[in-house]
């Protein structure tokens, strides 16, 4: 499957559909939250490491391509490595989003952008501009390893990281989950009971009897 098709199909899904399809996928921890709700982020990972210094972020902005997602491992920084000017430049260059495992600032502006930005915290204190680190290296972000070129998919629930191979494998199941969920929502809107769609009573009886069981939707 070509890269553009993978991204298009990923972008149509919620992160929960991917996580339900494969619970072993890399999911960033819940401490990374979007500055602006309601945006969806899908793109290639452009990775970098910096600590208390944002010069490497500026270098990444110059090197990243449209559609990339900056994934920034700040190594526990307490100073902001991103603010409004860098975010506006990222939007101008056509980046798909930014993930900062650390602090940002200028959050009022960042919340008003149509560019997805995720961060762990905010502070008015900016980092320095004295250290330039290598770009496009494996990083730790949100508790998971992110490699250059991995696919990043984020929404209000969080961020999922997949390789192209993982995406191609998990997409069919995730799309089936999304279609089934849409059908269930339509039936609920029509007045049907959720319990009537599930094997809840059978599942509960099996568990109480000590038998293996799984909660599932009825045919």
Question: Which labels suit this protein?
Answer:
single chain; alpha/beta; 219 residues; 10 strands; two-stranded antiparallel ribbon; Glucose Oxidase, domain 1; 8-stranded mixed beta sheet
Using the alpha-carbon principal axes, give the shape: elongated
Low-confidence stretches: none
Reported by name, the CATH topology is Glucose Oxidase, domain 1
Separate helix tally = 7
List SSEs in N-to-C order: HHEEEHEHEHEEEEEHH
Identify the CATH homologous superfamily. Ribonuclease E inhibitor RraA/RraA-like
- Please tell me the CATH architecture by its name: 3-Layer(bba) Sandwich
Span from first to last CA?
Answer: 31 Å
**What is the share of helical residues?**
25-40%
CATH class: Alpha Beta
Structural class: alpha/beta
Gyration radius, in Å: 20 Å
Counted beta strands: 10
Question: How much is the average pLDDT?
Answer: 96
Main pleated sheet: 8 strands, mixed
Strand content: 15-25%
Widest sheet, order of strands: 1-10-9-3-4-5-6-2
Number of domains: 1
What does this structure look like?
It is a single chain. The chain has 219 residues and is of the alpha/beta class. It has one domain (3-163): Ribonuclease E inhibitor RraA/RraA-like (Glucose Oxidase, domain 1, 3-Layer(bba) Sandwich), CATH 3.50.30. Helices cover 34% and strands 22% of the residues. It contains seven helices and ten strands. It has helices at 3-11, 15-21, 55-63, 84-92, 107-112, 164-189, 200-208; strands at residues 26-27, 33-34, 41-49, 68-73, 97-104, 117-122, 139-141, 144-146, 151-155, 158-162. It has an eight-stranded mixed beta sheet. A two-stranded antiparallel sheet has the order 7-8. A hairpin with a 2-residue loop joins strand 9 and strand 10 (158-162). Helix 2 packs across helix 6.
């Amino acid at each position: 499957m070509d890269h553009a098709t993978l991204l298009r199909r990923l972008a149509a899904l919620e992160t929960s559909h991917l996580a339900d399809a494969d619970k072993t996928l890399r999911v960033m921890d819940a401490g990374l939250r979007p500055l602006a709700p309601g945006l969806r982020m899908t793109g290639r990972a452009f990775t970098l490491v910096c600590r208390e210094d944002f010069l490497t972020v500026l270098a990444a902005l110059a090197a990243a391509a449209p559609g990339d997602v900056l994934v920034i491992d700040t190594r526990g920084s307490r100073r902001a490595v991103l603010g409004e000017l860098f975010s506006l430049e990222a939007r101008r260059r056509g980046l798909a989003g930014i993930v900062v495992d650390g602090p940002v600032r200028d959050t009022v502006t960042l919340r008003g952008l149509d560019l997805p930005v995720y961060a762990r915290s905010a502070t008015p204190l900016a980092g320095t501009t004295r250290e330039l680190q290598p770009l496009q290296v494996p990083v730790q972000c949100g508790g998971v390893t992110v490699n250059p070129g991995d696919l990043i998919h984020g929404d209000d629930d969080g961020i999922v990281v997949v390789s192209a191979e993982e995406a191609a494998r998990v997409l069919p199941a995730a799309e089936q989950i999304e279609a089934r969920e849409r059908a269930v929502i339509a039936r609920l809107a029509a007045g049907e009971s959720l319990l009537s769609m599930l094997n809840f009573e059978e599942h509960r009886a099996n568990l109480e009897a000590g038998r293996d069981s799984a909660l599932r939707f009825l045919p």
